[in-house]
Design a protein that fits this description.
The two termini are 22 Å apart. The chain is of the alpha+beta class and 214 residues long. It folds into two domains: 3-132, Beta Barrel (OB fold (Dihydrolipoamide Acetyltransferase, E2P)), CATH 2.40.50; 139-213, no CATH class. The chain is built from eight helices and five strands; from the N terminus they run H-H-E-E-E-H-E-E-H-H-H-H-H. The chain has helices at 7-18, 27-34, 87-94, 131-138, 143-149, 155-166, 172-192, 196-213, and strands spanning 40-51, 56-61, 79-83, 101-112, 116-128. Strand 1 (40-51) and strand 2 form a beta hairpin. Strands 1-2-3-5-4 form a five-stranded mixed β-barrel. Helix content is 44%, strand content 22%. The chain is globular and about 55 Å long.
């Protein structure tokens, strides 16, 4: 299973939170968590921290295509705590470093609302070295989307970041489009900033439709 298979848990959490019934010891949420504890899960993420003393690798979740429905329900920084007595040996054997994109497999220990998944690690494979470092040095603001959706923290802007990194930047035409976009978008973003009607039109007729396809 993957993180999207945990959607029922995250949907329940959101419903409880929206209704004001979310508490640390909520019985419904605890019961839903038990349905998944002990099951095997595979998760993709960027290495955020390696703690050899605690024998854990902490990942920041990374969606494969940036379009999964889970992104609306979890935190922008969803952490996977991967715990194993073999962490020091695995780190040395595979040369695992901070900012590497890795795929981990393991048994679910616990889920903490919308921000943390703990697993007993059984395997880890490196997908790309220095992935997080490379992306962070390339990162620029998504100017028009930020102006339209009200800030970089919105899930829509985060989806556009993933569309840029996971789709456009993987081809030459896509990279050329991104460069052109960053050339013209700051001026356009400033122009629409105080025009709510135009922002609404761009959002509904252009940006929302792009998100529906990716």
């Amino acid at each position: 299973m993957n993180l999207n298979d945990l959607l029922p848990y995250f949907e329940l959490y959101k419903n409880l939170k929206d209704s004001g019934k979310e508490t640390l010891l909520n019985e419904k949420l605890a019961a839903k968590e038990k349905e998944f504890v002990g099951k095997e899960i595979t998760v993709l993420g960027v290495v955020n921290e390696i703690d050899l003393q605690k024998k854990e690798i902490i990942l920041t979740y990374r969606s494969k295509d940036g379009s999964d429905p889970l992104l609306r329900l979890i935190s922008n920084h969803f952490f996977i705590f991967s715990i194993s007595d073999e962490i020091p040996e695995l780190v040395k054997e595979f040369n695992i470093e901070k900012d590497d994109l890795v795929e981990v497999n393991g048994e679910i220990i616990s889920i903490h609302r919308q921000s943390v998944l703990r697993i007993a690690l059984s395997s880890v494979t490196i997908q790309e070295k220095n992935f997080g470092l490379t992306r962070s040095t390339r990162k620029k603001g998504c100017f028009i989307a930020t102006a339209v959706y009200g800030g970089e923290s919105s899930w829509q802007v985060q989806r556009f970041y993933r569309l840029r990194d996971d789709v456009l930047n993987r081809s030459l035409p896509g990279r050329l489009f991104v460069q052109f976009y960053y050339f013209v978008s700051p001026a356009l973003a400033r122009w629409v900033e105080d025009k709510p009607g135009i922002k609404s039109f761009i959002r509904k007729r252009i940006l929302d439709r792009i998100l529906e396809r990716f």
